Amino acid sequence: MPLRQQIKAKKRLVLEGEECRISRRNMSDEWSHFEDVLSLRVFPCLSHLTLHKWYKNLYEYLEGYPFLRELELNNHGQKKLDFSKSYIDRLSVDMTGVEELVLNDGMEHLIFVRRSFRQLQDKGLRIMGVP
């Protein structure tokens, strides 16, 4: 069955033991439990992802999935974040501990969580990719 028909037919699939609609547009690791972010490739309509920890395959997923437009990333524990090869245009990111942030050319909205821009400037944060 072609993808468009699967979506219209409200086809369901199983992700880590949980039944989900294939047409799912939003995903959070609080609602759905998964160990590997690459397993989300089965959702062709996914456009918004909320994560509350760092996943080792996150960059690979973001670079290979052009349909994901919004990312909320919290409690990731990373010092450097590089989204230069991603397709996201809206990023909400927990800036705790971040020393360097690299954005892509298509970034339209950037939201800092847990730190103000002034606090980040005072600590010497480097933001690259901002025109």
Helices and strands in order, then pairings?
Blueprint (H helix, E strand, L loop, with lengths): L2 H6 L3 E4 L2 E4 L4 E3 L19 E4 L6 H7 L5 E4 L6 E3 L7 E5 L5 E3 L6 E5 L3 H6 L3 E3 L3
Parallel strand pairs: 3-4, 4-5, 5-7, 6-8, 7-9, 8-10
Antiparallel strand pairs: 1-2
Structure, described:
This protein has 131 residues and is α/β, with parallel strands linked by helices. It is 15% helix and 29% strand. A 5-stranded parallel sheet has the order 3-4-5-7-9, with no helix packed on it. Helix 2 (58-64) links the parallel strand 4 (48-51) and strand 5. The model has no long low-confidence stretch (mean pLDDT 84).
Give keywords.
about 15% helix; 5-stranded parallel β-sheet; alpha/beta; about 130 residues; single chain; elongated
- Total number of beta strands: 10
Largest sheet, spatial ordering of strands:
3-4-5-7-9
Tally of individual helices: 3
Rg (C-alpha, Å)? 16 Å
Biggest pleated-sheet summary = 5 strands, parallel
